[in-house]
Structures are given as C-alpha cells and as structure tokens.
Fold this protein.
Amino acid sequence: MGLKEWIDKTAKGVDDEPEAQQESEKRGVAKPPILFNQTQMLIKQLESKLGGTLITYYNSNAGSVCGNDASAMYEILKGKKIENAFLFIKSDGGSGIASLRIISTLRNYCKNITALIPANCASAATMMALGANEIVMGPLAYLTPVDTSLKHELSPTNKGNELVSVSMDELNRVIKLWHENEKQNDENPYKSLYEYIHPLVFGAVDRASSLSLKICREILRYHIDDESKIRQISERLNGDYPAHEYPILYREAEEIGLHVRKMDDELNEMLQELTMLYSEMGQRAFTDYDENSYHDNNIANIIEANGKQIYYQIDKDWFYRPDERRWSVMNDESSWRKNELVGGKLKNTIYHLW
C-alpha cells in the first residue's frame, strides 16, 4: 500500500468538510477540498523521520508571500520553544519584506531552522530560505535570483490596461545597450525612456533594488557572522543573473556560498506527497456566472504545523467593465481561516488577523 493510499484510508471517518465549505456548496459555488486530516497524518510521519518540528509554508498559483503570513506564522508558533525546526517551503515568491518578518517570527521561537525545498522556492521564497541554517534540496528543487521588479501607480500599462512590472535590471540593460551603440550626436536616452516610464518609477525601482539587498543581508545575519560572505551572497543573488526566473539548482547554490545538502529519496517522496495534497487544496476553484462575471473561491496560502492549519481563502465575485477595460471585485468575503480537530471533527473558523 502506497503512502497516499495509507493516509486516505487512515483519514476516513473524520469529517474534513467545514461548515463554510458546505455553505459554498449549497450556493452552487465550486469549492476546493479541505484535506486537513490527510496533511496532519503526513506531518506526523515527517516529524517522526526528521526528529524535529515541521512547519509548512505553501502558496498556490493564486497566492504569494504576503505581510499577513507573519501573523499566521505567529499563531502557529506562539507558546512554543523549538530546538530544531524544519521549514517546508513551496512558493513562487511575493514580498521580500514579508519574508523578513516571517523569518523574524520563526527565529523568535526556533533555535535552529532547516529549510526543506522539494520544488519551486522562488524570489521572496528564496529570501525566506536564506534565513535557514541549512537548505535541503530535492531533485526538483530550485531557488531563484531575488532582484526586484515592481508595479508602481505610474508604471506603463499593457493592452489589458493593467500595470506592468519594471525592474532595475531591465532599465540598466536599456541604458547599457544605448551606450554600446551610441553615436556622436545621439540624445540622452532618458529623454526617450521618460516618454514610456515615468521618472518616479525609475526612482522607485532603484529604491526597491536597494531594499532587496538590505533584506538579504538582514536575513543572513541570523546565522552568518562573516559580513563579507553575507555581502557576497546578497550581491550575487541580486545582480548576477540575466533573468529573475533563472533556476538556481543545488550545485550553483553551493557555489554561491549557501549551506545546502541533498535531500534523501524517502524524505523527498514524502514531501512530494505533501505538495500534492496542498496542490489539491489549492486547485483552481472558479464558478462562471456569465462571460463577464465569475466567482473566485481559491485557497491561496497555507501555513501548517502539527495540530493546526491556517490558510487564506479567496471568496469574491469578479465583474468585467468593458467601458473601463478592467475587472472589478464585489461581494468580497475572503478571509484567513483556521482548522483544528475538536472531538474528532474538523473545526473551521475565521481567523481574524490584526
């Protein structure tokens, strides 16, 4: 019997469907499954293998690293003193500032942290991994550069009338190309660039790039004393790569100076199974009303430890306004929610963050 089949069989008999999800079903809205009992069984198995406390951090395609994650992490950790914590991370990134706050929260309760990376750990999630004493990478694992791009209120817009992200690397490359090909009477390139990108966007992007370096240095200081090594790692991750999505695999992570180790096969398979359970919870859950409106009920972020699971549930309607060429939100009841087992049944409550 495989691990998944054993978990599913053991989990039977426990009500895994909270009242909020039952209500969604009554309204005819597509809903993702809540697999709390299955993930809890697997977390216990993993803790037995690891010999420490497992904390999981997962983003679906609808989620990202965000500021409220630190408060959710606090709810998971409060009252605990953990000698050896293992932090499972699967995310495509988000806010670097949020990563710093999450690591600060973890470090307040955990003496030693080992990051477990079975798959994608990109951008701001890479920053989070930098806060671990050791990074354990599976065969599918990768980190990425952490150079910053941003959407400013004055950013250019695309054909869908949406703001476009602008990065310091892109701006620098435009200027570099101009210098390499400039002729004697060419005008300053900024005059032409300012027709497409507002000067304040240039300043904001430069400021964001400096912030990214600062965040990396502060996170690494939690476990590295050598300032030259901290500077070297931070600068390489912020400026040495031609693409933000470039996958930094095990060998290159080691060359950068990170403390990395290869994941054993058994642990990798268990974490892949956990990823599949979270992916099932984080599957797309849209209900189309008509061609211009739909309901979004995706689960975005999941943070979990033994006995408790906190996740962010999107719950809102989207309407397209053709005259403005944009989507707008109505009936937004999105919220953080908490799962706990009470008397053998799943208790699901709205978790109010401050």
